[in-house]
Amino acid sequence: MWVMMIILYIIVSYIDTKAFTRLKEKSVLPLYIILMVISCTIGIANAYISNLPSPAGPIRNFILSIIGS
User: Are 44 and 63 in contact (CB under 8 A)?
Assistant: First the structure.
């Protein structure tokens, strides 16, 4: 989980620098907001799925395989 959070932080930081260097282009800001929401959602879902009880094991394994953890 920590590796995924670090990777997401690197991606968001890269997009952040790109968005602020191209602040004149208004189309970059919605893309930045969408990617921030997606990365936060993946982080929260990953933390939630990791704490599911054992009867939800097959569902947890399926979702973790989709996320790629």
Answer: no
Residue 25 lies inside a defined structural domain of this protein: yes
Domain assignment of residue 54, yes or no: no
Provide the pLDDT confidence category of residue 44 given band limits of 50, 70 and 90: confident
- Round to whole Å and give the CA distance between 7 and 54: 28
28-43 CB burial, b ≥16 within 10 A, e <16: beeeeeebbeebeebe
Structure confidence by residue, pLDDT tens digits, 9-38: 777 777 777 666 666 566 666 777 777 777
- Residue 18 located in a structural domain: yes
pTM of the model: 0.40
Residue listed under structure tokens 């670090």: 6
* 34 domain residue, yes or no: yes
Instruction: Give the integer Cα–Cα distance in Å for 41 and 27.
Output: 22
